[in-house]
Design goal:
CATH class: Alpha Beta
Number of domains: 1
Number of strands: 16
Strand order of the largest sheet: 1-2-3-4-5-8-9
Radius of gyration: 17 Å
Bound molecules: zinc ion
Number of helices: 8
Distance between the termini: 24 Å
CATH topology: Metallo-beta-lactamase, Chain A
Strand content: 25-35%
Helix content: 10-25%
Low-confidence stretches: none
Shape: globular
Length: 287
Amino acid sequence: MGETTRRIRDAGGRAEIIKTDGPKLLALGDGYLDLDLSRFPDVVRGVGDDLAIADGQDLNDLCLSVNAFLVETPDRLCLIDAGDGARRAPSLGHLEKALKSAGYDRADITDLFMTHLHGDHAAGLVQDGARLFENAQLFVSEEEHRYWNAPEEHDAIQATQAPFALAALEAYRERITLIKPGQNLVEGVEAVGLPGHTPGQVGFRIGNELPVLVSADAIHLPALQIKHPEWGFLFDADRSKALKTRLGLLDAVVETNIRLAGAHIPFPGVIKVVRNNENIGYETIRD
Ligand SMILES: [Zn+2]
């Protein structure tokens, strides 16, 4: 097993601090998702295998981190995404343990900032129809909320995710705030539009001079998709829009001090995209 694969499989229940100049930010490990390569239908074997191996991973034994992030301000405790819940334990469902290891309980969360409402981000919000975060408000983009209430727009793949989205929207229905890209949610946290993976997907930019952009599912597997952004993910609702967003994101962050965090970037889920001449790559950030 490669070193990165080992780190991904070992992340459930862990919490790590990510440096920013804004609010305190932590990565929380919900666990990992075993995948087969059919989830990346465009990958060219050989080229992809070499990139994975160079990154300490193996396309024949592929797994993705499932991370959430915690933002602490003086008076708010904001969770970005809520993991997969208990349905696929033991590989997933360790968010509560990660929160506890950071010194918190679910009841301490005041705000839930959702990047989008696929199951691996939203199933952890609810158990048996009841809210798991009893004191929290749910922040969802207006477009994401509209999309999941429009079943005629879901293809067969997105339809598999609709029950998770709708269960979350139902359980928190009295506590939902609809947001738009560009909006500041709390001091130092801004929503950023990243449409494609889902129509209403947003990321969250945290900090100013040393910012981290929690980029949701714009990139699933940096080992492949930084060099080959055209290798889309099967669960991208609109693969061409997802590609455009991915390219725009890489352009926006390369050669800047913006670090990219993501729900599926190997735990603790933060990279810095770098370009040497025409060669684009990334560095893993571990503070
Ligand atoms: Zn995801």
